[in-house]
Amino acid sequence: MARKLYRSRNDRKVAGVCGGIAEYFDLDPSLIRIGWVLFILFGGSGLLAYIIAAIIIPDSY
């Protein structure tokens, strides 16, 4: 069965993007969130990437 990337409904802080990515890769959501915050602080375009991901990634069922 093929896995699909969805935004999480159970592990949601803002839009569920980090929780969905963590479920997809079978990782701890806190690690994804820390990575995303670092991406926002050091990369500068992390916030834009999060907004785009929240729009593009469908919500889970």
Automatic annotation (TrEMBL):
Keywords: Cell membrane, Membrane, Transmembrane, Transmembrane helix. It comes from the Bacteria. It is found in: Cell membrane. The keyword Membrane applies. Residues 3-59 form the Phage shock protein PspC N-terminal domain. One of its GO terms (cellular component) is plasma membrane. This is PspC domain-containing protein. It comes from Alkalicella caledoniensis.
